[in-house]
Amino acid sequence: MITPYGYSTIAKVTLISLLIAAVAHFLPTAIGVPLLAIAVFLVLFALQFFRDPSRTPPLKDGVVVSPADGKVVLIQDVEHHFFGGSATQVSIFMSPINVHVNRIPLTGKVTHLKYIEGDYIAAFDHASGERNERTEIGIENGRVKVFFKQISGYVARRIVCDLKPNDEVQIGERFGMIKFGSRVDVFLPKSATINVRLGDNVTAGETILATF
Questions:
Q1: Which pTM value belongs to this model?
Q2: Which residues are catalytic?
Q3: What confidence score (pLDDT) does residue 158 get?
Q4: Residue 135 neighbours by CB distance under 10 Å
Q5: Cβ-based neighbours of 65, under 8 Å, separated by 6 or more
Q6: Facing residues of 109 across strands?
Q7: Residue 118's CB: how many other CB atoms inside 10 A?
Q8: What is the pLDDT at residue 129?
Q9: Are residues 66 and 99 in contact, defined by beta-carbon separation less than 8 angstroms?
Q10: Which of 105, 102, 90, 107 is nearest to 160 (CA)?
Q11: Helix or strand or coil: residue 94?
């Protein structure tokens, strides 16, 4: 399954690849074959990057699932305005080979939504969470609240977010993506029990980050 977020990019990549293949047809074999291989690689990479497999959220109450595929690169205690005090930050680095469609971590209402322009430093740099282009999202459901950020990286220059303020959202549903490698920072209340460790690989919509 391919995400609709990638249709325009895949179309552009396919067109460019067809042009490369057409040029390669008229060149000597030593040059044409590598060019043709590049054209095929570009199309396959685009299809791989914009894949959107089905996900099944856990059938449990009191859980927060990962909003992104990737590796847990940071777990730390922080002070956060959304919680009015202490919180726990869990940061997930998304490499170019990960699925990049983002999913809702908690059933509830969108009570905070803000897009912030910024820099494009490498996403594995922890400073990227405060300096890079990003979309901030807060969700509350009466029992608990979660705050998370879609953060662009050095390569990623396009954040997609379909949410609007006061939207009612369901755990595990798709809401956007970050194109071409990036990071998601999740902030959880101190009362939540963290279910992941540094270095863990997580799956959007399925891996339980925390329980409450």
A1: 0.87
A2: 182
A3: 78
A4: 21
A5: 57, 58, 103, 105, 106, 171, 172, 204, 205, 206, 207, 208, 209
A6: 140, 168
A7: 14
A8: 58
A9: no
A10: 102
A11: strand
pLDDT in tens, 36-55: 999 999 999 999 989 999 99
Domain covering 63-211 in this structure, CATH number = 2.70.70
Please report the DSSP string for 120-183 in residue order. ---TTSTTHHHHB-EEEEEEE-SS-EEEEEEEE-SS---EEE---TT-EE-TT-EEEEESSSEE
Angstrom distances, CA of residue 86 to CA of 26, 109, 134, 144, 159 = 64, 22, 22, 14, 28
Sequence-distant (6+) residues with CB within 8 A of 128 are: 119, 121, 122, 151, 153, 183
Give CA–CA dist 120/210, Å, rounded.
Answer: 29
Phi-psi region of 194 (alpha: psi -120 to 50; beta: other; left: phi over 0): beta
Q: What does the alpha-carbon distance between residue 130 and residue 108 come to, in Å, rounded to a whole number?
A: 25
Neighbouring CB atoms inside 10 A of 40's CB total 13
